[in-house]
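During the reporting period the student researcher (J.K.) took over the structure-prediction task from the postdoctoral fellow and processed the backlog of single-chain submissions. One of the processed entries is reproduced below for the supervisory committee.
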Amino acid sequence: MLVDSHCHLDFPELSSDLPGVLARMRENGVTHALTISTTLETFPAVRRVADAGPNVWCSAGVHPDERGDGREVSVGELAKMADDDKVVAIGETGLDYFRVEGDTEWQRERFRTHIRAARRVGKPLVIHTRAAAEDTLRIMEEEGAGEAGGVMHCFTETWEVAQAAMALGFHISFSGIVTFKNAKHLKEVAQQVPLDRMLVETDSPYLAPVPHRGKSNQPAYVRHVAEEIARLRGIGFEEVAARTTENFFRLFRHAAPA
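J.K. obtained the following structure tokens:
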């Protein structure tokens, strides 16, 4: 059993062949997946994808890069979206200063809104951070994000950032980036994060792992992420698969394994 803890099954690269995507998941021992919301406009499609099977769940949230129609989501709106058995998390939320120029206060306010919603509904956060680790951790602490818990998805930061996030009660999730030859520092972090605080993901259709790098990613490929972590730590693939699956269901406690 293996779980892809972060993918985007509503994106056209995957939704256009959803039955095939799910079949390849099963063939590769990937039994469950969490598909992630990125905009208000596409949330209904994300929610529909979660009905593809009892082994698929979704989140409710607005990605920090998305401006959409300029309307900001409220705590109440997120809480209403999350009032659904198939919605097991709030996010993808967080901060991303890499692509954004000028004033970024709107990102910080949106992030605070998501944390408050997660605390209200008692569902964990899926956090994205890029070129913004200091502010991300500060706001997590100020808003009591540890009360909701969650995961730092597609982690690419330092061991010090990982430690700070784990001190707030968060898990660390590794994507296909950990398989890249030039990801030396990330491989070192993957060797240090305790197995009971680790998740694996694809972030598909992006970031396909070696040996599929450069191609469209899919949940079946999360197996390569787990295999690389096992290699780095000198343990069996089965142990990584079992521990990360246990962690997923402990964190996303509203997801019942089928």
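The committee noted the following: The chain has a mean pLDDT of 96.
J.K. will present the remaining backlog at the next meeting.
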